[in-house]
Request: fold
Amino acid sequence: MPAAAIKTLARTLVEILAGIASEALKTFKHMMVGHAVDSLQLELDELENAFATMVFGSLAGMPLVPLGLALELSPHMEVELAKMLERHAKYRDAISEYAAFGG
Amino acid sequence: MGSGMAEVLKAIPPPDAKPHVVMVSGKGGVGKTTVSIMLGLVLAERGDTLVESLDQAKHLLEYLSLSEVNREFKVFGRLSAMQFDTGVGVSKLGREYVWLMQRIMPGLKVLNAESVLDMVRNAPGLEEEVYLREVLRLYSYDRYDYIVVDTPPTGLTLRILNLPRLYKFWVERLISLRERIVSLRYVIARSLGQGDEVLDDPVLYKLKEIGERYAVLERELLSPNRTTFVLVSTPEPLPVYEAEKTTEFLKSLGSKPGIIVANRIIPEDIASKLGVREIQERALSKLRKLDCRRPCAMVEIPMVDSVPSSLDSVKGLLSKARIDLYS
Reply:
């Protein structure tokens, strides 16, 4: 095979490989963006849900537990309370910020 | 119509279990504290009696010259009195909560523990909670045969009386949810080959304990053998309207007042001169028609020259009261 033909073949192969790599990178990028958006979407859904629960909970048949009941149960729910606060902290502390406006 | 306040005892059953609680309710300023002391004096003839005021206007302190709140004082014979102050209870509950938060979030200690405490202290519903705990305590306070409770003005009293029912509602739902959580934990633990310790859930035990406590309180509040509701009103349209509303509310809970008190009745000739005779008659007629349990005592106390403000002046009113018993 003449050298020129080999060169052309090699260039074509490189172009094909570069195209594949570029497509793979695009797909990978797309996947990464999609994954990041999914995480953000999950966070957004949680925040929207928390916000709606705080605002409309009582209208949706979820009136707030009487404060005294919550206080009496709280010593037995230390682990759950800590988990809840950690979860709220993860979501940019929105609920804590909401609850702390009077503090 | 009988004369003298002692007749009213016929409308209060002898204590089935100690103590029998007499809840004196009415619009602010109608003379609840005066009537509470009058009833206390009469009941002290029959057994050891405590008059406790939950009204934060704290008239009882002045009336009986009590030197401090939240402490019982011997007043006369077998009668003792105490002015309850919500501030101490509210702060105690708030501090318990802040202590717990500080354990979970140590940073809070240096940040804003005081503002959290302040927020909890002023949180809606906490004061009612403290009242409810005090009512619970009184029902199990068997040092006395009778406890006369001078309640806060009507609106707050009705909310407090409704709380056991509200608590029961919540506790029942929380128990059902918690049982699902516990059974789910059990399934997971078994799948992982772990023991069944998860079935011992302190929250579930606590919920059941709270539920039982409020179910008992609700039963006691509604039992004629444990509780007598006394409605106090002056013969004027608004206090009578509140007495009617309170009667309706008690009926919705499954109870009725046992004693109706019409306080500060103006003598007919003076009422005529003042042009209020008709209004007074109409108000008295409405009070007499209130749905009352049997035997029911209708107590009428005349207006006196000076506002009662001491134990002696209240004693002076005892012989002036007129009682009508319906059986």
Notes: Residues 65-103 of chain A form one domain. Chain A has four helices and no strands.
